[in-house]
Amino acid sequence: MQMTIDALLTVLRKQGDWVEAQALAEAFQVTTRTVRSYVRRANKSRQIIESSHRGYRLMANAGEYAMPSARITPVAKRDNRLLMMLLSRPGAQSVYDLAEVLHVSDSSLSALFRSLRPRLSERGLHLARRREFVWIEGAERDKRRLIRHIMREHPLADFPSPVANLPAGNTLDPTETNRLVKDVLDKNELACSDFGLDNLVIHLQIMASRISLGSAISDTDLSWTGASDASQHAANEICSLVGKVLGIEINTAERTYVSLIVETNTRRGQNKPEELELVTPSDLRIAREIAERLSWTYCLDDFSEEFIRRLAAHVNLLLRRAELGMEVPNPLLDKVKSDYPLIYDMAVRAAGIIEGSSGYAVSEDEIAFLAFHVGGYLSQSPQKSGRIRCVVLYLDYQGLGSTLTKRVDETLGIRGEVVLAEAVSDYVPDQIDCDLIVSVAPVEAAPDIRLFVVGPMMSDSDEHALKNCVEDIFNTRRGDSTTSTLRRFILPDLIQFDPPVKTREEVVKLLASDCERKGLVEDGFEDDVLERERLSPTSFNNLVAIPHTLRPLAVQPFLYLIISRQPISWGKQKVNLVLLLGMAPYERESFMNLYGDLLSALADPLNASSLIESSSYEDAIERLEHIIRGK
After folding, report:
1. DSSP type of residue 221
2. Which of 31, 53, 137, 614 has the smallest set of CB atoms within 10 Å of its CB?
3. CA 345: distance to chain centroid?
């Protein structure tokens, strides 16, 4: 994990108690001196981390100061600064002027030009040069996409705001523009998420800047039409207001392009059935296949028809954005990947189905939006399997029974459900299968059933204690199940310490070849693992990677563990732990439970650091068991 103030505060918040300096140093792979330095920075304006011989912990009154906010900001990369300079004015620019502004030598500038050519080529652009002058050739729409891409890379760096990030020209006030756009969309009964609204506002900022530089979009830049009447009306009204504010003329092509931006970032009528009118049979087929695949792979209850139709509407917008080459940045991407790895993995599988059906690549930003869909549904529709079954025994007097039952049900939340509620005087032992009895009086219960006694009106302290009891039951049950399967799936010959590998590809090739020799996998296993990595790297926390296939290609389920003291390059991250998953068509439920528990446990860098210290197979298994049980 990269050492930042955000990351330090996150670790301390998760632990909730003292953390030794050495443990933090190992988690971030820095020295204890560096840890002290970051603590001092975090405490610069107000002390929020206290220190002692036991290490560091968040102070009780840290409050909002402990929220991620004091991120250490990287400096914008030199190549991006050069690109912005080339886009900052029409026509060619002198290489001598560019070198002087960037404070680089002529040879260094030439090297930068060479590094930019492939990047520009990917976006349909070309770096042209004649003698001492250089410029970027290509369609105006492609240049704007490049500007947006640079703005996404540096939201907090040398460019402190979208306005400051623009190359030059007229600019709009972000707050006022945000309000203006929202009012127009509401007037035209168009619903827009916060992300879509930001996307629209940034596009308008870029449009205003480029028009003022004499670089307006022309009809030749447009390759797709078909925005709805509502989107066209909204776009025309927005462009008229922007043109009036800045005193610029916005041509028909620009207005058409804005209408496409509106079309691909909004829906007709928030929470109204009209928003589903544009869904095609193909969209529904893709959404239904996603629901069926996720349900089967992750052992989930069937998804509702409403979820499938809402997902189909999202797929429709996603594919239209892809057709236009429009990118909607998701600033929560990294947080979704690190905090909800299992949900994100489900979204990656959904993206694979969309790509296979449509031929369009799905970006990681779009995958994070898919994760919102899946995670939001699962949080509101908890799965029945694995939930704690609870019996409530109440005092039958003046409505106390319904009040107690309701409060117990709310306390259980997604962890459980009330399967029976009756007066304590009517209770008969063993009358129903359950895991927990919440009663206003002591009653007889089987040894494997937890009895929790509360007051007849259930106090706040009762509620707090019941929550802890429910979590303990849930964790114990899952812990017992998970630890019993660890040794079945991680065999002594499926663990390696410090193998001679340095990259993700070398790891996958090494493990896939060994699995083939052992007869654990079918043909195509290695290629399928790499295809999953192409969609989105399976690394998280800068310490752990859990590669796996998109399809169940294992002859029998297994986990192959690599522990390396030397970091392994994994996409943009470095990892020390690799857990290769082999998924088989059978025994999916226990395997997916183990997968989910490992993701949750190893998301904590201190747990991952502890596992890295393993010295043998037995040591590694024991550490994993303790980690999963929360010990």
Report:
1. G
2. 53
3. 9
Sequence-ordered list of residues with C-beta below 8 angstroms from that of 70, at least 6 positions apart, any chain: 5, 6, 41, 42
How confident is the model at residue 89, as a pLDDT?
A: 74
Q: What are residue 540's DSSP bridge partners?
A: 544
| CA-angle at 16, arms to 383 and 435, nearest 5° | 35
Beta bridge partners of 503: 569
Q: How far apart are CA 131 and CA 488, in angstroms?
A: 68
- Contact predicate 560/580, CB 8 Å: yes
Residue 172 near residue 205, CB atoms below 8 Å: yes
Count of helices and strands (H, E) across the chain: 24, 16
How far is Cα 29 from Cα 609, in angstroms, rounded to an integer?
A: 9
DSSP 554: B
How far is residue 122's CA from residue 316's CA, in Å, rounded to a whole number?
Answer: 25
Alpha-carbon gap, residue 206 to 211, rounded angstroms: 9
d(CA 500, CA 513): 15
- Pairwise CA distance, residues 510 & 518, whole Å: 13
| Angle between the N-to-C axes of helices 229-246 and 174-187, in degrees from 0 to 180, rounded to the nearest 10 | 150
SS3 state of residue 503: strand
Determine the pLDDT at residue 156. 37
437: β partners: 391, 451
Q: Classify residue 54 by its DSSP letter.
A: T
d(CA 238, CA 175): 15
Contact 471, 485 (CB under 8 A): no
Angle at 353 between CA 347 and CA 356, to 5 degrees: 140
Q: What is the DSSP string of 249-293?
A: ---HHHHHHHHHHHHTT-EESTT-GGGGTT--HHHHHHHHHHHHH
Q: Do residues 253 and 306 lie in contact, with contact meaning Cβ atoms separated by under 8 Å? A: no
Closest CA to 417 of 440, 445, 441, 384: 384
Given this model, what pLDDT does residue 157 score?
A: 37
- pTM confidence score: 0.68
Write the CB contacts of 219 (distance below 8 Å, at least 6 apart in sequence): 252, 253
Q: How far apart are the first and last CA of the chain?
A: 22
> For 126-193, where are the alpha helices, taking DSSP H only?
140-153, 162-165, 174-187
Please report which residue ranges of 386-459 form alpha helices under DSSP H.
Answer: 400-412
Report the distance separating Cα 260 and Cα 44, nearest Å: 47
The first and second tokens of residue 517, run together, are 């020799």
Low-confidence ranges of the chain (pLDDT < 50): 64-76, 155-168, 270-275
Q: How far apart are CA 127 and CA 275, in angstroms?
A: 43
Which residues in 512-572 belong to E strands, given as ranges?
A: 539-540, 544-545, 558-570
H/E element, 6: helix 5-15
Interaxial angle between packed helices 617-628 and 460-489, expressed in degrees from 0 to 180 and rounded to the nearest 10:
160
Handedness of CA 51, 57, 60, 65 (dihedral sign): positive
- Cα distance between residue 14 and residue 40, in whole Å: 20
